[in-house]
Amino acid sequence: MIDWEKITGFDWDEGNREKCQKHGLSQKEIEYFFQQKEVFVAPDPKHSDEEERYLAIGRSKKRKPMFVVFTLRDVNGERLIRPISARYMHEKEAKRYEEENAKIEK
Length: 106
Hints:
The chain is 30% helix and 35% strand. The radius of gyration is 14 Å and the shape is globular. The model has no long low-confidence stretch (mean pLDDT 87). It has three helices and five strands; from the N terminus they run βααββββα. The longest helix is centred in the last third of the chain and has 15 residues. It has a five-stranded mixed beta sheet, with helices on both faces. With 106 residues, the chain is of the alpha+beta class.
């Protein structure tokens, strides 16, 4: 379980910034994504060999469905979100997200 109140910011460097931008998402857009209440987060045990990873789905500021893989890092006494990869969902993923989200809202 993530204690969101203890998270104080983001851990960015050239590596993760470039990987996220490669898929058309800016650092600012990813940070906005995590400020929303409509982000669904789940553990990603398949990719958590060295550190605990999470999958997050939600919407961009422009309301486009997004998918973000991230981990949490403790840096200089602060708890930070470190985005690993981020992209807009493919059409098939977005359709499934819309269908599932509609079920939740009812």
